[in-house]
Design brief:
One of its GO terms (molecular function) is sequence-specific DNA binding. The chain crosses the membrane at residues 388-408. The chain is mainly α. Among the domains are: 1-145, Alpha Horseshoe (Serine Threonine Protein Phosphatase 5, Tetratricopeptide repeat), CATH 1.25.40; 442-555, Arc Repressor Mutant, subunit A (Orthogonal Bundle), CATH 1.10.10.60. The protein is built from 27 helices and no strands. α12 (234-247) runs antiparallel to α13. The two termini are 52 Å apart.
């Protein structure tokens, strides 16, 4: 019932668009044009929104008039492209392509429909839907042996994984794509894709702090880019080289490379490249204690950034500037940047649906808000200071000190009393425990201890559905006996005992198995018996003092 309702609502919206198309009259000059002529005009006038709209409507109207399904799909594809700024409209055209061609086999269709739908869902931060659409598009492209779209879709899937924080999975996909491009004997035809993939692999290695592998692919990107014009990603590869040099602590080399890239970028370069070069120039200068130069670049980052283009990757520029203004007691600028960062973070967190337990920030949003509020009060107080306020502050200080000492001693007495009571309770518990332990026969105890040793060596603890009742049953004993023996001999409860075994196994596997280290944290958690990536990460941190991704990075 729900599916039917959704389908009917979608169908109605497309009929509405169809009526709009039919109501628009094709200009006489286009009446007798072929599909190829209309397509060529569409491609030649992409910068003119009015003309491309006219050509796409003329194309679609001609296809509908001739009941040519393939050309109708091409018409919808044109409309997808020109309405991409209006995601809700564009996705309707993408759905139209899918509905029209999903049960047919055309070259490029329904691949293009799924591909566009994936792009739109990604733009809407609907990452799960985006991945579903990309995978359907990839399956369709592989059935058609459509190399161009296979490469594009694998690239998009890798970008999506990077967005979700799965950099190792993204790297696997990029490397797989590189292998596919090489085996297709299409390096000339797909040269832009080849250079792009090299560049993305080098960027991902940098993100993973794998500087040696990153450097190899950066050099490959630069060499391939310079071999033939146009020089795809040359400037961006120079930026990557600068970042890689910074990570290797070769700060002057980083500055040289980033400065060269900055000069080549020019005034019309895309925001992402320029802001990245400024960010790392700032960091490199800070590392060499050239603070005044660093702040110039961090201020450029701030001046270029708006809510629409902010990303967490440039957060360091803001936190460093906030610290700087705090240090020189420039409260106005400190407050201005705090308010801006709080706003940016709130929108970023809203858009970013995933939970990443490995993100640790120097300035979390709650702390920023607290500091901002304190700063506002401080600024207000500075403007309103009087002798009366000074006197009042003195009185309040004396009162607070008196109150503090009163509660301090009162709390200390309570703690002493609680400590005394706790010690009494522990003595009682030990007596009770000792008495209870004697209830289990020595033979039974030894038998269960032997079975625990076999259990640990068999790696049966990796079963994620394991419970105390199941283990007790397999040991041919009861849960009460098993729990008491684990508590007594392992000095921990059953849940902690199980978690410790799994974490110890994970640590050993990470250290010895390189392929295992490339898994996403979610996959590692599942493989070692955890049902939740968060519980795995928390248990790992308690055991090692590091989160899994940090532990893996140090090994790599």
């Amino acid at each position: 019932m729900t599916t039917s309702h959704t389908y009917n609502r979608h169908y109605a919206s497309i009929k509405l668009k169809d009526n709009l198309i039919q109501s628009k009259k094709t200009p006489d000059s286009l009446q007798n044009k072929t599909y190829k002529e209309l397509e060529n005009r569409f491609n030649a006038n992409r910068s003119d929104s009015l003309l491309v709209t006219t050509y796409s409507y003329a194309y679609l109207r001609k296809a509908k008039k001739e009941s040519n399904t393939f050309e109708i799909a091409n018409g919808y594809h044109m409309l997808c492209q020109i309405t991409i700024g209006d995601l809700d409209t564009s996705v309707k055209y993408a759905d139209s392509i899918i509905d029209l061609t999903k049960n047919k086999r055309y070259k490029k269709y329904p691949t293009r429909g799924y591909l566009f739908k994936g792009l739109i869902c990604f733009s809407k931060h609907q990452y799960s839907k985006a991945l579903d659409s990309y995978l359907l598009a990839l399956r369709s492209a592989e059935l058609d042996d459509d190399a161009e779209n296979i490469i594009a879709l694998k690239h998009n899937i890798a970008l999506l994984r990077h967005t979700l924080g799965e950099d190792r999975k993204a790297l696997e996909t990029y490397l797989d794509n590189l292998k596919f491009i090489k085996t297709q004997d299409t390096l000339v035809k797909f040269r832009p894709h080849y250079v792009t993939t090299l560049f993305k692999i080098s960027s991902t290695f940098n993100d993973l702090k794998n500087v040696d592998s990153g450097l190899i692919y950066i050099k490959k990107t630069i060499k391939t880019s310079l071999a033939k014009k146009p020089q795809y990603y040359y400037k961006e590869a120079l930026i990557n080289y600068g970042i890689n040099s910074y990570l290797r602590k070769d700060y002057q080399s980083a500055i040289d490379s980033l400065t060269k890239a900055e000069k080549l970028l020019g005034p019309n370069s895309i925001y992402a490249s320029k802001v990245k070069s400024y960010l790392w120039l700032g960091k490199s200068n800070m590392a060499l204690n050239r603070e005044s130069k660093a702040f110039v670049y961090f201020k450029k980052v701030d001046s270029m950034t708006e809510m629409s283009n902010y990303s967490a990757s440039i957060r360091d520029a803001y936190t460093t500037l906030i610290d700087h203004y705090k240090k020189i007691d420039d409260k106005d600028n400190q407050l201005r940047l705090m308010q801006k960062l709080i706003q940016y973070d709130s929108v970023t967190n809203k858009n970013n649906k995933r939970l990443n337990v490995d993100i640790v920030r120097n300035y979390d949003t709650a702390q920023l808000i607290k500091e901002k509020d304190l700063l506002i009060k401080d600024v207000q107080n500075q403007n309103q200071k009087t002798k009366y306020n000074s006197f009042l502050i003195g009185v309040l200080s004396i009162f607070m000190i008196t109150l503090f000492y009163y509660f301090f001693y009162k709390r200390k007495r309570l703690q002493d009393q609680k400590g005394f009571n706790k010690r009494l309770e522990n003595i009682k518990n030990k007596k009770i425990k000792k008495g209870k332990e004697l209830e289990i026969d020595t033979k039974v105890t030894n038998n269960i201890i032997q079975k625990l040793e076999k259990f640990e060596n068999s790696e049966a603890f990796l079963d994620s559905n394991l419970t105390m009742a199941k283990v007790a049953k397999s040991f041919k004993t009861n849960s009460t006996y098993l729990s008491k023996i684990i508590n007594t001999h392992k000095k921990k409860n059953f849940a902690k005992y199980l978690n410790d075994l799994r974490i110890e196994y994970a640590i050993k596997k990470i250290k010895t198995d390189r392929k295992f280290r490339l898994y996403a944290i979610k996959s590692i958690a599942k493989d070692v018996g955890f049902n939740s990536v968060q519980s795995f990460s928390n248990a790992f941190y308690k055991k090692t003092g590091k989160y899994p991704s940090e532990f893996i990075r140090k090994i790599d």
